[in-house]
Q: What sequence folds into this?
């Protein structure tokens, strides 16, 4: 007889799946649901609607019969459009027929890449603060992640090849980089990207470059893709998508690009995971890439305005943060409040109804940080800031702790 505490199925759960913890995030979500007038500055889902011409194209596509599977690597017209998009953003040529697979969100592209590359015992280098899907891809494949720092004293962001080099072992196989970066908003400089490329070459690393935030860089900063550097194309996979650029998170469409021989080998992986990305979403993505691009510039300007509002207010409150040069987040250091991030965001939610993600959900470190997203209207950011200002002095004085 099996232990009646758990179902037979539950007993079969592989050790690769870590025990679900009641995390602060879950608890806070439950509390927020019961509260009125919560200002949610946690999630990475744009509040702006998908532009109308993209929605119209999807409606038309449904009427025209986009209700079937497409080829597993995606609609050839979308792959061709993505090749043009990559040429423009990353300045590299990819063959649409053999080097691009359309995925069910960039999320699936990350998972496909890692599950196809990681063997038991392999090490995957990841930023200390990160989008933790990388961990799932590595660990479900029985590999492990090794963190390299990207935030330095004074809350300076840097992608530093020396830090990565210092953590390499004979099991290091894959290096994940993300610029513009979630959650820090950091953008790697051309020189730093070049040094990382040199390291990857010298130590024979495979690079996964997640560039999903590439349209969003501020203050004249430039997006530099490692793919543009000599000899990188052969050892690099590009992860990108439409969720962020065109406010299309719910459509679930992204892409993976890489050398033809590798991409050919993993088409069956794509088939096994989801056969193809949703046909209607592929039609929407095609309209996004081929249609007018003013919407991206408009969204960028809106995020930039919100960024100015929030960072000025944080500075006034004496909260330090990483200068957000890209993406749409602010990585805020809460140590001056004398609380951990989890304590701070929990208390802030209860006292003020402002919901923010603690840094601990972006990797094992992160106790000193919280991620605020710029994905609520400016008036709501101003209201959130007012609510924070009303309590922060009390928190710093230790009142109520
Ligand atoms: C760095 C990064 N990569 C990938 C993704 C996944 O995006 P998608 O919605 O295309 O699956 C996200 C989503 O937040 C992200 O922040």
A:
């Amino acid at each position: 007889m099996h232990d009646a505490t758990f179902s037979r199925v539950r007993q079969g759960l592989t050790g690769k799946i870590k025990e679900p913890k009641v995390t602060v995030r879950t608890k806070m979500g439950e509390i927020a649901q019961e509260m009125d007038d919560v200002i949610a500055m946690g999630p990475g889902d744009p509040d702006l609607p998908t532009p109308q011409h993209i929605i119209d194209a999807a409606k038309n596509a449904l009427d025209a019969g986009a209700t079937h599977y497409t080829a597993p690597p995606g609609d050839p017209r979308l792959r061709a459009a993505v090749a043009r998009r990559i040429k423009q953003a990353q300045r590299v040529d990819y063959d649409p027929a053999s080097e691009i697979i359309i995925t069910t969100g960039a999320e699936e592209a990350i998972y496909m890449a890692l599950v196809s590359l990681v063997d038991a015992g392999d090490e995957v280098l990841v930023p200390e603060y990160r989008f933790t899907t990388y961990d799932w891809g590595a660990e479900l494949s029985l590999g492990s992640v090794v963190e390299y720092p990207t935030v330095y004293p004074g809350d300076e962001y840097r992608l530093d090849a020396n830090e990565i080099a210092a953590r390499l072992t004979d099991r290091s196989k894959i290096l994940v980089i993300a610029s513009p970066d979630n959650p820090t908003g950091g953008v790697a400089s051309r020189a730093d990207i070049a040094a990382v490329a040199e390291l990857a070459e010298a130590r024979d690393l495979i690079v996964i470059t997640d560039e999903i935030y590439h349209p969003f860089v501020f203050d004249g900063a430039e997006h530099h893709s490692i793919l543009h550097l000599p000899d990188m194309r052969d050892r690099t996979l590009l992860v990108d998508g439409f969720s962020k650029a065109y406010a299309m998170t719910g459509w679930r469409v992204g892409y993976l690009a890489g050398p033809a021989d590798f991409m050919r080998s993993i088409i069956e992986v794509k088939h096994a995971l989801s056969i193809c990305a949703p046909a209607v979403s592929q039609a929407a993505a095609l309209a996004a890439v081929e249609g007018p691009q003013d919407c991206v510039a408009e969204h960028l300007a809106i995020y930039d305005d919100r960024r100015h509002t929030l960072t000025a207010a944080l500075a006034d409150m004496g909260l330090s943060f990483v200068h957000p040069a890209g993406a749409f987040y602010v990585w805020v250091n809460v140590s001056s409040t004398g609380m951990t991030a989890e304590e701070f965001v929990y208390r802030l939610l209860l006292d003020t109804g402002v919901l923010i993600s603690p840094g601990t959900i972006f990797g094992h470190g992160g106790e000193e940080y919280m991620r605020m997203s710029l994905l609520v209207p400016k008036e709501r950011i101003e209201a959130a800031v007012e609510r924070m200002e009303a309590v922060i002095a009390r928190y710093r004085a230790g009142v109520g702790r």
